[in-house]
Write a structure and sequence with these properties.
about 300 residues, alpha+beta, Alpha-lytic protease prodomain-like, Alpha-Beta Plaits, about 10% strand, elongated, disordered N terminus
Length: about 300
């Protein structure tokens, strides 16, 4: 017998993704033209970055639409992990972008080219404002892995605009051209750190890892301490998608007739203390398990 409690909020985030897509795609062409005219690698790199980000945001928007689709016969848990797959794809794309920018920056250090600092400053400043607006829109959206992936791209654009602005100012006032590729390499490092974290969190979901903010033994001990519970075994905790934590377990009780009240106490404990709202619990009467030794909390299988 299974008792199943399912509470889930929508995890689509279409509107902020579409707004960020329009802003990013529109300005990427402006920045590309400005980078070509000024000879700035920082601007050209950021323009290519923004153009790729437009694809990433479009991918995220499609994933947000899919995530809203209800469960069906083939996908009984729904399409929520489409957003996680989009986050993984965006993370991998970002790794390629970082590698490309780093390669171009190293080449530019070996073979310096003239850069028009004033043009770079003007375009980079406008780009910074556009990126701040896009990041603000995304930050106010739902905190899914998909939104995090999109926000990572936009934050990378923002850092790129800052780097271009600084390099333009340095070149304009001092004429020191190497600042352009050097700042590009610094931005690559910052983006890489965030990218690795995003991929780690996405892989955690796909591998059904226990959420990092939770401890399996602690959750098990807490459930076992609920009145009416003798022991807990076959405990599993994982994320269905960016926003839904699932739990399943076998609960050993003295009396099955008391199960409805025990279930309600277990459900309330999981929601209030651990914010776990997708719960599947199977009661087992104590007499069925008496031939073997029952630990208070067993290790997960």
């Amino acid at each position: 017998m299974h008792d199943h409690v399912h509470h889930r909020t929508g995890n689509g985030a279409l509107r902020p993704l579409v707004i960020a897509l329009v802003l990013t795609l529109g300005f990427s062409f402006v920045e590309a033209i400005g980078g070509w005219l000024s000879g700035s690698l920082a601007l050209l790199s950021d323009a290519g970055h923004m153009l790729t980000d437009s694809f990433a945001l479009a991918l995220g928007a499609v994933a947000a639409i899919l995530a809203k689709k209800p469960a069906d016969r083939e996908l009984s848990f729904g399409w929520g992990r489409a957003e996680v797959l989009a986050a993984v794809t965006n993370g991998l794309i970002m790794l390629l972008i970082v590698a490309g920018i780093a390669f171009a920056a190293i080449d530019r250090l070996r073979n310096p080219e003239p850069v028009h600092g004033s043009t770079v400053m003007v375009i980079a400043f406008i780009g910074l404002l556009i990126n701040i607006l896009a990041a603000w829109v995304l930050y106010r959206g739902e905190r899914t892995l998909n939104i995090r992936g999109a926000l990572l791209h936009v934050m990378g654009d923002m850092l790129g605009s800052v780097a271009a602005l600084i390099s333009g100012a340095v070149i304009y006032f001092t004429g020191w051209v190497p600042i352009d590729p050097l700042l590009s390499l610094l931005i690559c490092l910052l983006i890489l750190i965030s990218c690795v974290r995003l991929l780690r969190d996405s892989v955690d979901v796909l591998m059904e890892r226990v959420p990092r903010e939770l401890s399996l033994p602690v959750v098990g001990e807490t459930l076992a301490a609920v009145v009416g519970v003798r022991s807990v075994h076959d405990l599993h905790i994982w994320r269905l998608d960016s926003s839904t934590i699932s739990l399943s377990a076998h609960i050993v009780v003295d009396d099955l007739t008391a199960w409805p009240a025990v279930l309600e106490r277990l459900r309330e404990t999981l929601i209030k203390r651990f914010d776990i709202d997708h719960i599947t619990l199977q009661p087992e009467p104590l007499e069925q398990l008496q031939p073997r030794i029952i630990d208070k909390v067993s290790n997960p299988q």
